[in-house]
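Run log, item B.
One chain of 157 residues. Sequence copied directly from the ordering sheet:
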Amino acid sequence: MKYYQFLITGDDKIHYPVPRIGIVTKARMIFLVIKFMSIFKNKGGNECLKRLKKIQPTKNYNFSDKTEKYLFARKVNSFVQKWVNVKHKQAICLERAAVICAALRFVGLPAQVVIGRRRTIMSVIDYEFHAWVELDNVPVNDKIAYQQLCMEIHRAP
């Protein structure tokens, strides 16, 4: 974890104590992932994005600073990505973003799904549109470069 934190923060002197996610919270997150993937499949992306507003946090974690909060968000992201891959490995970016955002909001983090459109035709992005999750305007589940490569067209919730 220390090496991972160095790669993200660039600081090799401080080791941030990232809060643990309890087993009950993990189990509830798995059910949330399955529920949101089912909603996406049956009712579409718009319905998933609408339901993000209704998610009530199960626990409020206390963080000493933004870096610790971001590292915790990345930890939740990694856990959720594994379950998304188990359930539907070919999930599109909007589906992944909605599910990850739901999980982050479930643990009390005010995450948002951002949908962007490719800025130029000669971009390195394969698709014209892309969706990712942001926490405090920093991408959690994707590269920070997407903020420059894509023009934001929608943010939810």
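Observations after the first pass:
- The two ends are 31 Å apart (CA to CA).
- The first strand starts at residue 112 and ends at 118.
Flagged for discussion on Thursday.
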